[in-house]
Design a protein that fits this description.
- The chain folds into two domains: about 90 residues, no CATH class; about 110 residues, Jelly Rolls (Sandwich), CATH 2.60.120.
- The protein has six helices and ten strands; from the N terminus they run ααααααββββββββββ.
- Strands 1, 2, 3, 4, 5, 6, 7, 8, 9 and 10 form a ten-stranded mixed β-sheet that branches.
- The chain is globular.
Length: about 230
Amino acid sequence: MKTHPAISDLTRQQAIDWLLKLRSEQCSPSDREAFNAWLAGDPSHQLAYDTVTSHWDRLAVLKTSDFPARSAALSYRKNKARPNWAYSAAAVLLLAFGICALHQRGWLGVPITYIAEKGDKQSVTLADGSVVELNTETELSVRYSFWQRRISLVKGEAFFTVKHDAGRPFEVKAGNSTIRDIGTAFDVYLKPERVEVAVQEGLVEVESTDKRQLRAGQNLVVASQRPV
C-alpha cells in the first residue's frame, strides 16, 4: 500500500502562503525560485500544495456558479466595498485545514499570550518555526497573519531565534521601540525606563525616534523617547 508523507500544520500554512503569493500580481521570479526550493525541501510540501490548490480550484468553481443566494449577495454587494477574493478563499481554506489549530498558534491575526511566572522560564516554538525563550517574569503576545508576524513584549525579557521570511516581516514591539528582524537571533529586555536590545547573530533594525541597524555582537539601549 502506498503511503503519503504526513503534513504538519506548519506545512499546510506555508502551502497556503505560497498559493496566495504565486497567484498575486506581486509575485516575482525570485519568489518562484524560492517556491521551487520549498517544494524540493520535503515530500510533504508537494502534497500539501497540491491539496491546497485542489481546494482553491473547487472554490473557484463555486465562485463562478450561478445560484440564487450568490445573485442576492452580488446585488447587495453593489453598494458595498468589493471584498478581495483571495482573502475570502484563504479564509475558507483555513477552515478546511482546521481553524482551531491555526488560532492556537497565533494565526488569523488573533493574539496569543505567553507568560513566564516569577522563578520560571519558558521556551516557545512559534507557527513559523521561530523560537522564543522567555526569561522569568516575562509576558508577550504573538499575532501572526499571512502577511506579517508581530510580537508585543508586555514586560520582561525574551530571546528570539527567528526563521527569516522576507515576505512576512518579524517585528517585536517593546515600549516605544520596534525591533525588526533581518534574519537573526536577538534579545530584547523591556524595563520601566528603557529597552535593551542585543544581537547574537545576523542583523536587526531598531526603530524608535529614528532607525538603527545592529549587527552580531552589538547592543543598543533605547530610552522612552530616544536612543542613548
